[in-house]
Amino acid sequence: QAGVPKVGPGGFEEPSVYCGRVLLSMEVEERSLKKEPSPASIALKPKDTSGMWADAMQKMFFRFHCFFGQEFKTDFLKGSVQVEFQVGRKRVACKPVEKSDRGVYEIFEAVEIELDLPFDDERDNPDGSGQPSKGRGWWHPLCFIQRLPDVIVKVYKVSGLTVVGDILRENAKIDMGDREMLGMWRGSVQSVLGGGDLEMWMDNVFIGQERSDNQTGQPPAPGMVEGVQSIMIAPGDTAPSPTKEAPWGKPGNDMSQTILNPYTGYQYVDLESDSTCAVGPDDPAGMVGFSCKLWMPTREKCANGPPKGPPVLSPWKAWNINKIPPPWSDMLKWSRYFSIRAHVYQAQGLPAKNGSGVASAFAELKFLNVPSVRTHTVYMTNNPTFDKTLVLNDIELFVLPREREVGAEEYMVDAEDYTEVEDNRLMLKLAPALEIQIHEETEGNTILLGRSYVKPADLFTRKVDPTYIELFRGNPEIEEGHLLVSFQVIEATEKIMKEPLVPLMPDHSMVKPDVKDTWTSPAPVKAIPMMDCKIQIQILGLRDLTSPYPMNLPINTPQVEICCDDPKTACTTKSSSRPSGTNANFMECVEIDVRLPEEKLYAPFLDFYVYDHTTLGFLPEVAVFDKPPIVAYGSMETSQFYPSDAEDDDASEDDDEMDEEAIERKKQKERKKKFFAMVSELKGKGEISGKEAKMLEKLFVKRDEAVVRAFEQYVDAPDPEKFIERVEEFINKADAIDDKVKKAKEEALKKKKLAEDKAKKAKSAAADKASKLKGATPG
What we know:
alpha+beta; five-stranded antiparallel sheet
């Protein structure tokens, strides 16, 4: 695990050390003897395991694809980074790279690891028959995958000497003294193969040469996963170079291109740091994108390897010489332009870094090398309210399509239902992360107070309600306050881009991230009602006030100022030194008139400042404008003493609307469930095909009028044949319309071509006439 967090250099106390695994078995048995048996009689002896795991080891060939990384803190001497992959005792490193003009570390390299896993053909037989599986080819790939040690990804900063050394030694030695680790990530092999999804591992696992080499049942059952015959390169031959038609794999061979697609199973992970890492307390560990593929030869192939036969060769090696095409390359062009909006409401619990303990902070939105945007500075509070929307326009984001040939055009502009929103969000997982920072402004300098990273794949096009996100500097385990914020990622041609930005204020959106049916809700964002309030504060006094002065000089005449969000609300007590400065009594009651949002999420803070009027110049660095210096500061959430009926009033105002919306959503959900069940039943009976069922489900989600009407008629009078007849009529009608549109387009193109030909002939005739006239004119 990661080191124990603490405040200090690096922000960590203990290193993370992975010491491998141990193979053991345990047994519990009841004993009737009063005396413990001799250890010699129950100890496991070498002869007891002499026949175990003596069969041929299972060979495994991993292919890791490393794409790019960001937020690595390098320096002048070590300005490059190197990514290393490790499985068990085996590890391999990519070539070091420097930061590119795009603001990321572009690696785009494939490397491989060959691993041997001890295996017992009888005891480890995964089909449960108890018979040796050698030569039969019947075993489940997860039997091996789940027994493998975790994958560990490490990122190092390296010097120019390391780069030269790697070229000369071809990565023969990885442990070089001129590199320092920046961060690491660890995950199961199954998770790595699935791109972070444990269920998707099969997309990147291949067995034997043909699909039939690994059967999951009795013959002639097909194999569970594909073989690698389509990507094999004959000895002495080289793999084809990437082209636009085939950026990976063999031209014209679809299966080879599917197997070698490096972007299948892509994931972008956050690294962790510990005390062994060369990062400072303000430095993040960084992020890196990668994917992995695994090929396993059959048990028969492993058994017939050395010393009996020829070695088992990797199918990946010949292909690894080719650089992985980046998403922005001419081969792929997987990028679109977006607008990023950060709706920054307020922060709470910021850790001021100046002598007064009170921050003057602003928020800043950053993305790679794009010029950042920031809010105004809110002075003298650790709980600032910004109410500002930060916008980054024309931002190029990489997208990951399901179909390579379709590319970036696969992104659905103005998505109409949640399925299209889901597809769009999956495409954005290839995009680098955004960063929101909070800085303190002191005498022209800025100090980082906290940061947070946001991945575009987690965002929506439409505005959602804000949430408090945790801020940190270097170690995510150490909180540095919270920020109330919401984000939008909007494709540049979306209709929503035409809607004017309005001043940010407490508001409420109908789009709920956990309710899919609301993701495309057209309902506008509503402002939260404000209420006129009077806050009454009884200030009794100070107790045990600690002196910030040198040599612990006493506080003599303190005074308290209270402010709620706006400096105009500030009110102060009289200064007092009775009975002493550190335990002064005030016995005053002050009142603040303020407008507060009815929803507690947006409730501001009360700030309490203690000034001392007799400092004699001891603390000039904490003087506030023309006021005496601050000797103490504190804050309190106004939500703690909101009027008891405020939430009830807020709820009662929207009760009818919310009830109607909730009832309608529930009704739609039940209808969708019934429709899907009906379609599934028809498919099970063979009335409709799987393709037709999927098409009907998609049409129903899109609330197609004809399909919905056919379903309503089916609910009133269940008749599968009539339903199919109505749907078929609609489909045939739609096909006819499509044919009509297609024919109209063809006619339009034909007319356009005829017009162009006519124009060309007229132009040619005019040119001939002009030429003849010119020839007939006397010189």
